[in-house]
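ESCALATION

Customer reports they have been waiting on this structure for their group meeting. Please prioritize. Original submission:
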Amino acid sequence: MALILMSVSVNAVLFHATLEPATIAGALILIVLNIIMLIGYKDKYKDLLN
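Update from on-call: job pushed to the front of the queue and completed.
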């Protein structure tokens, strides 16, 4: 699930960075939390990412 949400997070950051830079804070928080979750569960995603 975190991998699916990562694509949504990246798209949200790119959208806000290019079209709505004033409202990027929420997207940045989302991607940081998603990265923390991926790092925390990296051992479970090793087989999927190989």
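Sent to customer with the following note: Residues 2-49 form one domain.
Escalation resolved.
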